[in-house]
Write a structure and sequence with these properties.
By secondary structure, this protein is of the alpha+beta class. The protein has 18 helices and 17 strands. Bound molecules: zinc ion (ZN).
Amino acid sequence: MTKARCYHAISVDRPLWLAHNNPIEQQINLSSRPDLALRRAKQSRGSILITWSTLSLSFLLCGLALPADAQMNDTAQLLTELIRVNTGNPPGNEAQMAALLKTKFAPRGFEIDIIPTPDPAKAHFIARIKGDGSKKPILLAAHADVVGVEREKWSVDPWQGIVKDGYIYGRGAIDFKGGLAVFAEAVMMLAKNKIPLARDVIFLSEADEEGGAYNTTWLAKDHFDKMDCEFALNEGGWIMKNPDGSVRYVSISTADKSNMSLLLTARGTSTHSSMPRPDNAIFTLSKAMARIADYDTRPKLIDSTREFFTTLEKTSSEPMSGYFHDLVNSTDPAKVAVADREISKDPLLHAIMRNTIAPVFLNAGFRGNVIPGSADATINFRAIPGTNIDELISEMKAVVNDPRVEITNGGARALPPGTNPETYAENVRAAALAGPSTKDTDLFRALVSQSNVVFPNVPVTTYLFQAGTDATAWRTRNIPVYGIYPYPISNEDLSRMHGNDERVSITSLQQGTDLIYKTLRQVAAK
Ligand SMILES: [Zn+2]
């Protein structure tokens, strides 16, 4: 606790002062000597603040945007505060996050709406800054809840926003408190810098994205007027780094995969374990599962993934560039199979080109001397837009090829806690039917052109988000939604999302804030 407070104090003082030095190097040194760092920061604070204020003033007088370093301070600082509100879902505690966000937005003149839910711990937070109304609003959505942690597997306290080695550590650093901090900071900068706006800019901090009944679909039922917009920005695509730290590509998702689950049930005779019979339900289910384990769905590309893999072809060298080329263009099934095998060594790429198959529950037996009469397994699929669950069931029946195994729509067990199965099934159908968002909007164009400014010579591509998001409320109303995790990220950091020692680079937060702020100016300023 004490240690964390020390780090926190450094993070407050540090960026103003260190941003013009080498922040990462300085951070490493100071993290290892928090006592020294704190003293140095305190000593230099007075003169730093004067210098910084003078600098800020001169930038403003010249009509220039503040240097991006300034945003690194504010966004990283905000993120540490967000991580400290434990919004692990369940239970979520998003109402506490709403209260914190109100203290940030209200003083800047935003209209605030906190929408309570039937669960007093959960609330949605909406902050709106008015434009002149000549254009429809733009909305930035970020979920406030995060998944839980396996505390013993973390090397730092996941709920403290620890600053270490140039990173902010904590649950949600990537998914999606980092994005929440970037979106919030970029929106607040419009107010700070008094940018005259042609449209309202709406910031939404959501409840229950990671599971639960009171998500944005719930919010949209009675409060859609507060979240109605011309287009929205959400989580989704990645700004991927090369191993050398340079940015390889910027991907913006225009669609999300759908979350569907199937239940496999094998039945047999329930009897004493001393007299086994050939129809053992566990064996039958195990054979079915073994067949599915040896099977994989075929690649199924859509426009956004074709563009994405073509971008990868252009940004990689042989032999990978050839595999990407074949995956998109070849009509030879053998070549596509080889390309699939090689590309699929990357789990993310494997996932976005197909309907994925992941067993998540196994259930059988209740006594050590009883052969159970049934055994079941739940398999979670993440499906390409346009996939019909009945097609998936037929495909799996053909793979299992055993009439003793029943395959049905997943049922309640596969659903996130607190979810109503009927509402959920309705949402899945609606989400699967909603097509990808059009690229022909001012927001998409602004994202592309400002990516080119912030990350020169880096290709920008559409993307299919490999998981689901809570964008259904807008997508099903034909409102374009674009997704981005607004910070350059490495493969290694990406693997920590929903895992242990989740972290985001402070420099990346600064770049992301710069990108989103510039995008908002292009799309919303008069
Ligand atoms: Zn997320």
